[in-house]
Amino acid sequence: MEKIPVVKARLADAIGQSVCIQGWIRTRRDSKAGFSFLEVNDGSCMGNLQVIADAALANYESEVKRITTGCSVTIEGQIKASEGNQATELLAARILVHGWAEDFPLQKKRHTFEKLREWAHLRPRTNAFGAIARVRNQACRSIHNFFQEDGFLYVHTPIITASDCEGAGEMFRVTTLDLDKLAAQNKQVDYSFDFFDRPSYLTVSGQLEAEIYATALGKVYTFGPTFRAENSNTSRHLAEFWMVEPEMAFFELTDNMDLAEQFLKRLFRDALDNCQEDMDFFAQRIEKDAVTRLEKIIDSEFVRLPYTEAIAILESCGETFEYPVSWGTDLQSEHERYLTETKFNCPVILYDYPRSIKPFYMRVNDDERTVRAMDVLVPGVGEIIGGSQREERLDILELRMKEQNLDLEAYWWYRELRKFGTVPHAGFGLGLERAIQFITGMTNIRDVIPFPRTPGNAEF
Ligand code: 4AD
Ligand code: MG
After folding, report:
1. Which of 93, 142, 266, 369 has its CB 3.0 to 4.6 Å from that of 77, i.e. a possible disulfide?
2. Are residues 91 and 229 in the same domain?
């Protein structure tokens, strides 16, 4: 008997087939006529398969009538056309219960997302977390498809590194030194005794290494876990998140913007096309505009706005902000939200930021006050992409590094990329979780990654 996933068993094509399905019980209802309805879900889709369990089954009284939400089952039987709202149902010939689920916490009422975070081991069995997992999977496929179809090379950049790409000092240290022992002996840390012979960290970005490959192979991307020891407890920050970073030789900032816009639209389009049932769920339960909002964005053009103009808009808009704005300050999320939600109500690409608030690697503009930075802001989430054209001129790069008190020696290899066959190049980073937040309408970033890492949380 063929094992098939519920997603296939629910299609009219399956009618007449004898099949075996395996999954978890969502509900059981007993009819007065002496049979039971079971709703089975196996994670292959949002919808359940309805199973008719007749009293004639050998274990009907002894087992089937004891089945509760959360039990795991294998069911063999025949797919029939259904008279209910779904296309098909399964008429069971045999039901095997693998595991009972007494006192299953997800049995009864709907729980809040906060509560479900305490049950990271069980929350994927809910409709919402199943849908999020499938949309996240789809986004990862789309990321690879988009870049692979366009001739990009997938490069694996290291997780452990000695350099702080963003220069923000938000790195987790990696060491094999016995810190307890050093502390007990009141000793200074000597990194020449450490595993890598130097202070090492978890990466905050694969960009610098991606630049090495882009300046040899043209168009590359890296996609992997990224770590930031930012002590911010917000709905948009994680200590461990996934970032996709394309890096392109011979690209200028406008090429970079075009690519970012096409890329985001592709992610949104694929989610709508390939996760319809899940997207409908988000529209019904999480955010009523989830689907229409994406459709509108796919058909529109992103606003492109220089930082200097954005400041002028914010200064004259008449809103009172908690943090005052003026030229030279970094934008707070309230400012980003004003621009993308109130003023334009669509994604906004802000570019040409002051050099003083952006990392050393961004290309300095002719005005010498601004750099070729770009941030993509979207309604509801704020910054979803950060990127730039890179400084390819060695003398200016070194000037910028000194300006930011960086140790030039430590970046010798990065500087040599400018010494040997330097090229204009650009790239950006998309935070996967922020993209999933935007697609699904989920308000807290902790709910769009299977196992969120935030200050004080690493249990599961
Ligand atoms: O703007 P960021 O810091 O840019 C970089 O790291 C560049 N090196 C990328 C590049 O040009 N290759 O981070 C990029 C994106 C942000 O826009 C945001 O979506 C996400 O990464 N991000 C986070 N997501 C979740 N939690 C955090 N703590 C994040 N920090 C950044
Ligand atoms: Mg940024």
Report:
1. 93
2. no
